[in-house]
Amino acid sequence: MKKAIIFDLDGTLINSLPDISAAMNRSLEKAGLPAHPEERYKYMVGDGVINLTRRAVGSAQEMTEAMLSTYKADYAAHCHVNTHVYRGIRDALTVLHEAGIKLCVFSNKDQPDTESVIRYYLPDIPFSVLWGRKEGFPIKPDPAGALETVKLLNLSPDDFWYIGDTATDMKCAAAAGMESIGVLWGFRTETELRENGARHIAGTPEEMVDMILHGKL
Hints:
The chain is of the alpha/beta class. It folds into two domains: 4-15 and 84-214, Rossmann fold, CATH 3.40.50; 17-78, Orthogonal Bundle (DNA polymerase, domain 1), CATH 1.10.150. 43% of the residues lie in helices and 16% in strands. It has nine helices and eight strands. It has helices at residues 17-30, 49-57, 64-78, 89-98, 111-121, 144-152, 167-176, 190-195, 205-214; strands at residues 4-7, 14-15, 84-85, 102-110, 129-133, 160-164, 179-183, 200-202. The strands form two sheets. It has a six-stranded parallel beta sheet, sandwiched between helices. Helix 1 (17-30) crosses helix 3 and helix 2 (49-57) crosses helix 3 (64-78). The protein is globular, with a radius of gyration of 17 Å. The two termini are 13 Å apart. The model has no long low-confidence stretch (mean pLDDT 97).
């Protein structure tokens, strides 16, 4: 059995889309730019806050820097409003931890926001590593953060599962040399996950646990 798991955060452990979309839409409206339906943000998020902002402002790219600052302040103040942990995730994490598996998070969300939402929504889960976007490290799909997590735990990539909901996650898992599980309760489709290298697909957190602990692949 593998010794550790790296989880993506948004779309894998938590549904943060309501708070992300609300914060960005408020920021857009303040700047006189059109807001977007929440559903559209499923394809704007996942590649870090800078890319989210560029996608949100559309043709008004000259406003990206100002919008980025506005959004980051708004989201930091409102990231605990309508975000929620996906059904079954808390139980799944508890079972995996009790089985002796080290739990880690690797997110393209800024490090302070990664820590904030994890500590608010999953305070009882003993994560070994929380890795968000940090200065000096590239964002996913670059595997640098995943490989730093490997070093911190004194393990090898073969010891890890990598679990996420987007093409970015599947590409990162492959680049890091980790076995991947694409999950279907998040923001993207099974087709996207399979086309980008998902080794396995889990439809529910319970299926994910069965794959990891009981080899039901």
